[in-house]
Amino acid sequence: MSDAASATTEPLTKADFQSDQDSRWCPGCGDYAILSTVQKVMPDLGVPREEIVFISGIGCSSRFPYYMNTYGFHTIHGRAPTFATGLKLARPELTVFLVTGDGDSLSIGGNHLLHILRRNVDVKILLFNNRIYGLTKGQYSPTSEQGKVTKSSPAGSTDYPINPVLFALGAEATFVARTVDRNVPHMEMVLKRAAKHRGSALVEIYQNCNVFNDGAFKYLTERATKIDTELVVKNGEPLVFGPIDDRKGFVIRGTKTEIVKLGSVPDEDLWVYDETDPVGAGILARFDHPNFPVPIGVFLDIDRPNFSESMVVQEEQSIAKKGPGDIKELFLRGQTWDV
Description:
Layout lengths: L2 H6 L22 H11 L10 E5 L7 H4 L3 E4 L5 H11 L4 E7 H7 L1 H9 L4 E7 L34 H7 L4 E6 L3 H13 L4 E6 L11 H4 L1 H7 E3 L15 E6 L2 E6 L16 H8 L8 E8 L5 H16 L4 H6 L7
Parallel strand pairs: 1-2, 1-3, 3-4, 4-6, 5-6, 7-10
Antiparallel strand pairs: 5-10, 8-9
């Protein structure tokens, strides 16, 4: 494209990222809010549509590529990370998003999610967590709470749930965050941060399934309760929550984290959050309702060489040392025979 043509190109808008396909989720599903927010954020990234790819596995959330006016793949159950890794290696210049659900990514796809995170592949992973299997009509999922009564656990689930943020931190992801489907401004901020990160970025999105698990995150979305249950994480600031007249914070004594009322301890004793500290991120990730407020925001953002860049460098070094190579010669080298 010429410089003159580039100068006259109209900036992209949210509408440019809306496909001609009708969104087919249950009325009231949290996926609609996430889709709308992602479409709104895309123009701000400054990336042409033809350089953006959305990849998904199987599940309600995995319909996402149909609704984005970009390139996309709707792949197979749990294997979206392998497709995303292959694409990023073949076309490292592309911006790749992976859309998945708690069932898709943390059951059959758990092994694949682990490796895309530990390798630090430059892919942005949006993990919709509604703590239920929605597409297959309401079985308990890997993130469902213990005692969850569903069609597949009529007496209550005995499984201990997976914490996606802890999973990502344990897999050595370099960017880990959490947001909520009904908190659109916060979701926009987190998505933009994830998109700018160079390396594996996992964003857990609490998403309401109003048919099979309605109100799973009500304590975080209702005005009457969220003031006491939501902890908005901000880098370089003390972790505080609660109403104006009863603000609380945290102090760390030894290996224990305690909730304290502001003013009851010196300000310098309050936990000031550092999003580059993996140990602090691990402590924060264990905060859970009802014993602690639930953190939303960026838990970890660190820099480490990413997989696709490292592979490109390795390939260039090999070519410089040994030449471009010959695939036929490679196949015929060593112990071969004619049949």
